[in-house]
Amino acid sequence: MHRLDKNNIPKHIAIIMDGNGRWAKQQGLQRIFGHRHALASVRSTVEGASETGVKYLTLFTFSTENWNRPKDEIEELMNMLISAIEKELPELKKNNVCLKTIGNIEKMNGKVQEKLKKATIFTAENTGLTLTLALNYGSREEIVECIKCCVQEVIDNKMKTDEINETLISSKLYTNEMPDPELIIRTSGEKRISNFLLWQAAYSEFYFNETFWPDFRKQHLFDAIYDYQQRERRFGKTSEQIEK
Predict the structure, then answer these.
(1) Quick check: 51 pLDDT over 90?
(2) Which of 5, 7, 18, 162 is flagged as catalytic?
(3) Is the pLDDT assigned to residue 211 strictly greater than 80?
(4) Nearest Cα to 18, choosing from 67, 48, 59?
(5) 242 membership: H or E segment, kind and range
(6) Measured between alpha carbons, how far is 235 from 99 in angstroms, rounded to an integer?
(7) Residue 145: which residues within 8 A CB-CB, separation 6 or more?
(8) Is-catalytic flag, 18?
(9) Does the active-site annotation cover 227?
(10) Of these four, 56, 118, 123, 193, which has the most CB atoms within 10 Å of its CB?
């Protein structure tokens, strides 16, 4: 952590937490044990983000595609989510972490919705790190819903077609209350975005780590931030323009 430039910490980091199943397989365990061990990774990463001054941390927790997994695995994941919220909520409150969610939460089971609602209300006044769980989240679905909303407003004469621009679209996405991520991390060695924050990632830096998510700790987060700080972010400009 001592290597990090405190003046160049990304405001928003998003993480694709990958490799739970493969980690469990390496240990000779069932997949669900990988998910259980991953809770320690979440805790350590949240601590690391808070320590470095990251303002927003978004974790790809459950995608719209994850419903295709075995039914018993999904049920166990939902139970783990409920248990984790109950267990970690006092620490989140104590550490000034604000918990939020993005995704189509309404399609999740009632108990999960209830726990998430209570947790977000309980931490709403916290002013430190904003921890966002992407649950039942799919970026393509998010963009489609945004398009439908815009079309309906045009039909209802609430908006003209030429008023639709990038700023308007961003304001109608799930992430409208947070900046786009400067850094997106994916664990386990896979190098794809998997329908995660497609619009928001337009200018994100990507960092791919070989570590399976259950073994990921705050030190790995610090490495990713350090790597980010070595890059030149030009946004279409030349290096000479940036230097000026």
Answers:
(1) yes
(2) 18
(3) yes
(4) 59
(5) helix 239-243
(6) 31
(7) none
(8) yes
(9) no
(10) 56
Residue ranges of domains in the chain: 12-138+180-230
Which pLDDT tens digit goes with each residue over 152-176? 999 999 999 999 999 999 999 999 9
Q: Can you tell me the distance from the alpha carbon of 216 to that of 18, in angstroms, rounded to the nearest whole number?
A: 10
Beta bridge mates, 135? 62
Residue 83: what residue type? S
Tokens representing residue 163 in the block: 């008023």
Look up the CATH architecture of domain 12-138+180-230: 3-Layer(aba) Sandwich (3.40)
Torsion angles phi and psi, residue 19, rounded to 5: 110, 10
Q: Torsion angle, CA of 97/65/182/209, rounded to 10 degrees?
A: 90
What local confidence, expressed as pLDDT, does residue 26 receive?
95
Q: What are the tokens at 24?
A: 């469990």
Residue 234 pLDDT > 80: no
| Helices within 53-182 (DSSP H only) | 71-94, 110-122, 139-155, 166-171
Catalytic residue among 7, 8, 66, 109: 66
Which residues, 6 or more positions from 222, have their beta carbon under 8 angstroms from its beta carbon?
1, 3, 4, 48, 52
- Nearest alpha-carbon partner for 184 in 231, 144, 142: 231
68's CB contacts (< 8 A; 6+ apart) are none
Joined together, the tokens standing for residue 83 give 């248990």
What is the rounded distance in angstroms from the CA atom of residue 170 to the CA atom of residue 96?
A: 27
pLDDT level of residue 232 (50, 70, 90 thresholds)? confident
SS3 content of the chain, % helix, strand, coil (to 5): 50, 15, 35
